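Example record

One chain of 399 residues, shown exactly as stored in the release files.
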Amino acid sequence: MPRTAAPLRTSPIPRVADSDRRRTSASVVLRSVLEHGPVARSTIARLTGLSPASVTDYCARFAELGLIRESAELRRSRGVGRPHLPVDLDDSRFVVGGVHVAVPFTTVALLDLRGRVVARREVKHEGMAPAKVLARAAEGLEALLDAAAGARPLGVGFAAGGWVDRDSGTVVEHPLLGWREVPVRRLLGAHTGLPVHVDGHARALVNAERLFGGARGSRSVLHLFAGNVVDAAFATNDEVHHGPRSQAGTIAHLPVPGGTEPCDCGRVGCLQAELSERTLCRRAREAGIVDGVNPMHVVGAAAAGDRVAVRLLLERSRRVGRAVGLLLDVLNPERVVVTEIGIMHREDCLGALREEVGSGRAAIVTPIGFPDSVLAVAGGAVALDVLYRDPLAASPEAI
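Predicted structure tokens for this chain:
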């Protein structure tokens, strides 16, 4: 059964400038609570530059919506006066659904308001039509919500690799899945009855890092995702660059000097063909290390002492490091986050990547902050980014 999407609160239409200003102010207040809570309202005012009266008003509205609550612990100010009753996120009431479609399976998950994974499951889908994949994802979400007693869904986030158009809610093209012009927002929304937000997984994860991970507070962040799909995202001044029809970050066919892997585009040595987990697993099979297509089995073999598995992982991390170095030269970000199984699970792989980047810039490169839940976080982060950008759009009827 589809869940009924709660209607948004109606009010007189304000001027565009006033509306944008209110949305921005509401966003910075809620993000201050996320980052610093439990935190006094006076501290939020100092951190955000908003007036104490405005902060008090926004906090009252967030409390009404069920997004924050007063902490039970009183905090005394530095000077003389009454102790403050700080506010904190109320992470006990609401969740967002997350759907990430990878090449062999779909990950469905529930995340709380702090970006923590509450529940998740994987659904195999190889060979299925897009409509069937999304229908099964909706069924998986429904099962997770039924098992999460008392959790109320605010919406669903969808993420995938390839070309994903955020504004239209469409997977424009995903060659490895064979998807073209798939209306994800419409299909998932029809199944779930909830608001559905759609984006590419590299952009979703850079938002997750800025909201909940180690990139919080960074003025510019580059994220490189190296899985079966290889793509990137770049955020500056709290905005992720999408480009026309959300095509920014498409780096799959950048040429790799000395590359030997044939690509589906007809050329040899494209970045995705060289770095894909499919390529890693094929090489591992040829070496007799594994007999399947799960890259974590290569990581497991390396952990068990297989020298060839270690070599394959180190070589891949070095190639990723060269790609990072190229993007660093072009974009010059303050922080670089990399999603790649080798560096997420092995210090020697992280060292190999940083060595390729160069000692002068190695320190700004870190693995993704969610190594055990990357795909679950990617889907949910799409919906959470929308919430933290426009928190007052959360409906009181959903409480």
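Notes: The chain is about 40% helix and 20% strand.
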